[in-house]
Amino acid sequence: MDRSSTVPASGVVPERRSVVRLGVAGALVGGAYRRGDVEVDRESGRVVAVGVGGTGAGMAVPGLVDLQVNGFAGVDFLTADVGGYAHAGAALARTGVLAYQPTLITSRAGQTVAAIETAAKARAAPGGARILGVHLEGPFLSPARPGTHPAGLLRAPDTELIGRLLAAGPVTQVTLAPELPGALEVVSACVQAGVLVSCGHSDATAAEAHAAFDRGARSVTHLFDAMRPFTHRDPGIAGAALTRDDVFVGVIADPGHLAPEAVRLAFQAARDRVVLVTDVLAAGGCLDGHYRLGDVEFDVSGGTARRADGTLVGTTITLLDAVRGACAAGVPPEAALNAATRTPAALFPQAGLGLLRPGDRADVLVLDDALTLRTVLREAREL
């Protein structure tokens, strides 16, 4: 018996009025489902015990981690102020996302620098979902695969520019197209700085993708979307990533972005390396209408975001929607939940994310059997 993850050997939990049980039937602990209730201490903000006997319903899971959030609740992170971050962070936390990367699409260098500086200030403010750091999705993207990024603002990879952007604040991830001239040098500069490099918005062949992965790129941004299509003689970046054990793959489990077979394929090929992301926009958590993403204008109708020319623009889903979307595609719930908790947390090993063991910070969600959110706890306190 692993006493580190159960009640004390005596079978008696010391009486503390601040210790409460969550009333669940089981919990996701260490990536696996464990039967039994969970106890948390409101005073210390920590998990006390898991696998506790008793009756309950539903499941406790660690707080969700979303590594690609363009905005939420009417806030676009490219133009947000600190107050906007506070508003969006509180709204994200209510959906179960307790840690995230604000993601900045391609824009003018000065605007990007200002946005990074604002994110740094917001990161230091208490409350809401925790800001891990900034994800720069651009500007070093392929003009052949721009998606919704403004094509006129795309830039050739430039070590001087990336140095300026990294110096502006807490950049934790950079997405680039590895086939572009100078991209491998930027990969090396980011890796040396401790920044996660992700390949995306790319027309790279498999060989070009492997070259970036060999340099230290460790991730792919929204697998299959805005990249060279996979074919049996030209597997491209998707084929390269799925066949390597050292590369994580971001997946948007939303029917508008990926067919169910594509979602299942990703999990079957890279189960412990799939990171569910939303790529959610400022329109997330809002009504249909007209919105902006940096310099890009788009409309949301029926929850689907498109530019006037029909180009798909991000999503309006929550990360728990993505978990349910993966399950609807045939992915087991345990695997889908891990892809929104434990796996993204593995990219931030010092952050204490994605954990639900005695002594861990009690950032915990309680879900019912349909994976509907019942309760959000941040440091054992209900939001």
What attributes characterize this protein structure?
single chain; 383 residues; Urease, subunit C, domain 1; disordered N terminus; nine-stranded parallel beta sheet; TIM Barrel; 10 helices; six-stranded mixed beta sheet
Cα end-to-end separation = 34 Å
SSE-based structural type: alpha/beta
Using the 3D structure, state the CATH architecture of the largest domain. Alpha-Beta Barrel
Domain unit count: 2
Shape: globular
- The CATH superfamily of the largest domain turns out to be Metal-dependent hydrolases
* Helical segment count: 10
Could you estimate the helical fraction of the residues in percent?
25-40%
Give the oligomer, counting copies of the same chain as homo and different chains as hetero. Answer: single chain
Number of strands: 23
Q: What Rg is obtained from the alpha carbons, in whole angstroms?
A: 21 Å
CATH class annotation of the largest domain: Alpha Beta
CATH topology title of the largest domain: TIM Barrel
Proportion in β-strands: 25-35%
Could you tell me the mean pLDDT? 94
Q: Main beta sheet, described?
A: 9 strands, parallel
Uncertain segments are 1-13
Family: Belongs to the metallo-dependent hydrolases superfamily. NagA family.
InterPro entries: Amidohydro-rel, GlcNAc_6-P_deAcase, Metal-dep_hydrolase_composite, Metal_Hydrolase
Pfam families: Amidohydro_1
EC number: 3.5.1.25
